[in-house]
Amino acid sequence: MSDPIIFKAPASRRAVLAMGAASLAAASLPPVHANPIRGTDLTQSPYGGGNLPKGVRSRMIQAVNSLDVHILEAGYESPGRPLALLLHGFPDLAYGWRHLIPILADAGYHVVAPDQRGFGRTTGWMNGYDGPLAPFGLLNMTRDALGLVSALGYRRTAMLVGHDFGSPVAAYCALARPDVFPSVALMSAPFPGPPALPFNTAESEAPSVQSNNEYQKLAAALAALDPPRQYYQQYLSGRQANDDMWHPRQGLHAFLRAFFYVKSADWPGNKPHPLKGRTAADLAEMPTYYVMDLGKTMPQTVAPFQPSAAEVAACKWLTEPELGVYTEEYDRTGFQGALQAYRVFSDPDLNAELRLYSGKTIDVPSLFIGGTSDWGTYSAPGALDLMRTKATTRMSGVELIDGAGHWIQQEQPARLGKLLLDFGSMQRE
Asked: Where does the record locate the signal sequence feature (predicted)?
């Protein structure tokens, strides 16, 4: 994902009050856990079907900010190792870090990658479109990370890395608790800073009220293009998106294969570049998996780019057995838990709490890493420059890795590992 271009349907005061009442009612109920895999006990079901690298284990950490968190970890045998915490994005899992985890563990870290709230084998979140959205807010997901660090017996991380949606979570970790997260590496989604409060409005004739008109106008402008288009976050926030992706016509495995392929450096159509602005015409320069043809589902959008059998066989960073892990996990849970965070992140009303940090910068050492074939770096026009010039004060650089699209940690783990280890070494000097 990237910093959102926000699209939001108008909500009545009654609807807002109803949402609050529903959230309070839900808070008094026991959590609805993600459905267990075909009724089996997940604690007895081996993770990854034998496709975990040597030295990487799967286990559950109980009672972390109302969650039971599933993690992959390595380097746990030796006490006292510095902690490296890796936060994945959409539609990824802790499993997405499998190639990187051994590299960092071999360098002396205790490496931990959780399934984030709403994903994979982490339970304790309510699975359904009409469930409360507040638990999926960025600050609560920041508390998830903070609670996990504490549960593991650490006072601070030595390395914090966030990819895609994990990037804003990691950014708020560093923003809110620099004592616990004293450095941060952001991947694929630049962080433009927290939302601003209206400034110097005391003498205005009327209070400044944040309006969604500009976002509705942009949605209308995209729909007016030829052919009509729709921003992907608008689609992912809709009620139908989960079922579309969970039960696609081509099958879940084929859909996931096409989705991972088309956003990788393997697809020759990925030639990202900075966009001039946030107009409909500017955004329409991006591939259809970012700015979709209006009326098409995501599985329909990526289906024409299905890789051939030879291309699948040549894909060493995501083999068929490895993709099978994703297929099995998402077949069990569906996508709605993962999509709830999109719905929160793209709604300014639900993100009002982020204004607590208005004007605050990330003041710990930071690094941004993208892939040269990843549109995520530019999909929110201006975010990269804002991150470098305003949102951070100690950014060591912007690194773009050749031969990588969106899935950097899978496509180029060795190059990524070197960048992260060099960045970590700088913090210890």
From this structure: 1-34
The dihedral formed by the CA atoms of 149, 132, 187 and 65, expressed in degrees to the nearest 10: 0
Q: Are residues 222 and 304 in the same domain?
A: yes
The secondary structure of residue 28, as a DSSP letter, is T
- Spatial contact of 85 and 145, defined as CB atoms under 8 Å apart: yes
Helix (H, G, I), strand (E, B) or coil at 292: strand
Residue 32 one-letter amino acid:
V
CA–CA separation, 140 and 173 (whole Å): 10
For 90, list phi and psi in degrees, rounded to 5.
-110, 140
* Residue 305 lies in domain: 213-337
Distance CA 296, CA 302 (A): 10
For residue 84, the cross-strand partners are 111, 159
Q: Does residue 297 fall inside a structural domain?
A: yes
Residues 6+ apart with CB under 8 A from 62: 68
Read off the tokens for 144: 């998830």
Mean pLDDT of 336-347: 88
Whether a cis peptide bond, with omega within 30° of 0, leads into 91 is yes
What b/e readout covers 386-404, taking b as 16+ CB neighbours within 10 angstroms?
bbeeebbeebbeebebeeb
Q: Say yes or no: 151 and 270 in one domain.
A: no
Question: Is 8 a domain residue?
Answer: no
CB 361 within 8 A of CB 174: no
| Residues 408, 371 contacting (CB under 8 angstroms) | yes
0.85 cut: is pTM over it? yes
Q: Which amino acid is at 144?
A: D
Residue 316 has pLDDT above 60, yes or no: yes
